[in-house]
Amino acid sequence: MEKLTAKEDEIMTFFWDKGAMYVKDLIDLYPDPKPHFNTISTMVRALEAKGFLSHKKFGYTYQYYPVVTPEEFGE
User: Strand order of the sheet with strand 21-22?
Assistant: First the structure.
């Protein structure tokens, strides 16, 4: 399994704790100053490309959810 960067690991921890989320929901979990939407969206798509996340489409938005458990990752 691929290694994650510190930021990717942080994002996966949010998903493992909260479950399925939209990018906006994920950004709301960060303290001020919040990261830019495009930054988080790019990182989430990278995690999806690595096989850690998947998504469901709702209209024009995507709800992402973890497909790898912390145990599978080795947390």
Answer: 21-22, 61-66, 53-58
